[in-house]
Write a structure and sequence with these properties.
The protein is 30% helix and 19% strand. The chain is of the alpha+beta class and 328 residues long. The termini are far apart. The structure holds flavin-adenine dinucleotide (FAD). The site of flavin-adenine dinucleotide has 30 residues, from strand 2, helix 6, helix 7 and strand 8. The site of flavin-adenine dinucleotide (FAD) has 30 residues, from strand 2, helix 6, helix 7 and strand 8.
């Protein structure tokens, strides 16, 4: 690990001021950043610790939603009684990931900003446009078991690894931020993560030094909430594919279908056309296949990850069957 300065910020303005310098990075739980620093994939010169900023509260908003502080741990968020009863998708997605020890340290903001698990990104001997813009992409023609089938480019096919972010995408969460000087922004999660195009190193809409202060969930909606994750091991493994679903059936027809997908794209993936195809229709395997055809209309495998195309279809079908089956 390279030497670095460490400062524990006492206020938001101190944090954003300290992080405005090139080479600075916020540190929350450190469960991703420190690993990357040990491998010299990330080499910040200054760490700005944001754990003393009072961003660790969960509060209800006036409109029935929930504001989750950026420093709330994944364990506390998954265990929150309001989350478990009204936004269980969040608890289920978080508990499907990492381990108890990691979730005790991992924060809400850090989870959204965790970097890809692409093997070539982690190996500094390999070309990676995300780590070193313009160096190339060793994943192309390489081992691609974990890689994207949608949304990638010739410059990058890495996937976004977060489970929580997929659930938040389906729920229509909004990210609240603060910049140096004190101005704040609200960024819908749908616009927060960006596709690689020819700049895979730019992963989010955040500006350098911009602090995530909270994530806001809209008021809960009717319907069953399901998070289904397929992975190589039963625990302690990132998603090969995942589906987050909020599905409501009323009078035999699908009244709501909010779906987001993980493990298949460089960002938590949501496709309005898929949802449009489902809403208003009677649930059936035929309908679910039609929706999967829409999801996968531009899917492209790289040999090693070709299996994800039928796998995400089957996972989506199983999720939709479970969400729409009548309870005995
Ligand atoms: C063995 C292992 C298995 C895992 N398995 C899974 C899994 O199955 N599913 C899953 O989703 N995740 C998994 N994770 C990832 C884990 O969820 C993340 O490491 C964690 O959520 C990151 O949060 P953190 O607070 O530790 O972030 P940090 O490591 O502190 O920070 C991560 C990044 O976010 C930035 N950052 C942090 N907070 C803020 C903020 N408020 N504003 C702006 N920038 C900020 C940091 O500068 C850094 O770039 C796993 C991790 C490990 C080590």
């Amino acid at each position: 690990m390279r030497p670095f300065d460490y400062a524990r910020a006492g206020s938001r303005s101190e944090a954003t001021g300290a992080a405005a310098h090139a080479g600075a990075a916020f540190i929350a739980g450190g469960t991703n950043l420190l690993d990357l620093m040990k491998l010299q994939v990330m080499t910040p010169e200054r760490l700005v610790d944001i754990q003393g900023l009072g961003l660790d509260g969960i509060e209800e908003t006036g409109d029935g939603g929930l504001r989750i502080g950026a420093a709330v741990t994944n364990s506390d968020l998954a265990a929150d009684a309001r989350v478990r009863s009204r936004w269980p998708l969040i608890s289920r997605a978080i508990l499907a990931g990492a381990s108890g020890q990691i979730r005790n340290k991992a924060s809400t903001g850090g989870n959204l900003l965790q970097r890809t698990r692409c093997y070539y990104f982690y190996d500094t001997d390999m070309a990676c446009n995300k780590r070193e813009p313009g160096s190339g992409c060793a994943a192309m023609g390489g081992a691609t078991r974990l890689h994207a089938i949608l949304g990638g480019s010739n410059h990058c096919i890495a996937t976004h690894p977060s489970d929580m972010a997929v659930a938040m995408q389906a729920l229509g969460a909004v990210v609240e931020t603060e910049r140096a000087g004190g101005s704040g922004r609200e960024i819908p999660l749908a616009e927060f993560h960006v596709l690689p195009g020819d700049r895979p190193d730019i992963e989010t809409a955040l500006e350098p030094g911009e602090l995530i202060t909270a994530v806001r969930l809209p008021s809960p909606v009717a319907g069953r909430q399901i998070y289904r994750k397929v992975r190589d091991r039963a625990s302690y493994a990132f998603a090969l594919v995942s589906v987050a679903a909020i599905v409501e059936v009323a009078e035999g027809r699908i009244a709501r279908a909010d779906l987001a997908f993980g493990g298949i794209a460089p960002k938590p993936w949501r496709d309005g056309e898929v949802e449009k195809a489902l809403v208003g229709q009677e649930p059936s395997d035929r309908l679910f296949h039609q929706a999967a055809d829409i999801l996968l209309r531009s899917a492209k495998g790289q040999r090693g990850n070709d299996f994800k195309i039928p796998l995400i279809r089957r996972t989506m079908l199983a999720t939709l069957r479970e969400a729409t089956e009548e309870l005995a």
